[in-house]
Predict the structure.
Amino acid sequence: MLVTLALACSTETGSSTGGAGTAGHAGDASSSGGMAGTTSVGTAGSANSAGSAGTGGTPGAGGTPVTAGASALGGTAGTASGGGTPGTGGGWASNPDRLPCGTKAGQCECQPTLAERKAPAFPPTKITAPTGLLFRFMNNCPMTLWLKFAGAPGDTIMMPSKSTQEFDLPTLHGRVTAYKNAAPGGAGSVEAEFFELTADPGKALNYNLSFVDYMGLPLEINGKGTSPSCGLTACYAPLSELVKGCPPQLHDAANGKCNSMYSYCNNAAHAQEPFCTALDQSAADTLASDAMCKAGGTLAAAGSGAKIFGCATGSFWSGSPYCCAKVNRGSAGTSQGDNTQNCLYYKTPPYNVYAAYSHSVCPYLYAFAYDDWNDQSGYHACTGGTGADITYCPGDP
């Protein structure tokens, strides 16, 4: 059924573009929780993403520098002969076309800029004088998608492949979830991706793209507005490459998804597997040695296993973004103790292998709750927001 929350709507065939708006803090309301918003108008908490590229080989005699190997999981360093070869095992993570990074000290993973956009261009809007917020959606994926708006129960829009739709919305709060194979609730329907919004004309335009529960579809959100904080959060991996290097325990091949550590380990059937208790000792050491985390006491009191991976609500980790992020990113050891430089993240096991993988594929996105600690998530709070362009599969042909 066509969504009825729009004041005006048009449908066409085309492509994507934009900038964004601000106020308040709408965070990621995924299963693992989030931290309280800090700005004036916001609602809810957050969760986010970080990581770093692997090391490449060195130039060979007369050759050119190699491309980086896959981050943290998979890729091997390139060889010196003839310029070397890309690392293997990381799929899109070892692709030389990944986003470059900025010059901030200690920063090896950076937010994409408008100059680095890879999505197609949207056609000119047919809603020339919106009374609310102008949201434009493009399905650049090779299959039909169904979009479900959390703020409008029962309302779903169908988007055929390579189509666009636009809406003049009075307000929009909560998740926008994309489904594939069938509409939500239909036979074979698969929840493929979600992003979150707090959008109020003249007040707030806050958005984030979340992989805290799973990776299922690449997506770009390009906010429009007058603030420098308006801009891109995006995953540009081609759909066919998105989950190629997913850790085997987390790979849901039937549905084309890579599940998060929290989603997998929060299941009682997996909770005691070594895979799911891999961070327990590091967490215990952090509680014992880091002055910022000692309030958590013992691991038994703070929570173990899935609680750490999810920074889960009700545990010590849910109220300690710094501590939970430090353990998940593998920066808890004495030689990796600086939790402010993302060049150090996911270098020395143990760490959250799902977060490491998802950051290698799609930098600067939420991979676990509180991945926004040290500004790693791509969360945007935009002043003067007027709307956004949202493109599914922005890196596909």
About this structure: The longest strand covers residues 190-200. The radius of gyration is 21 Å. The chain has two domains: 1-54+67-75+85-272+363-397, 273-361.
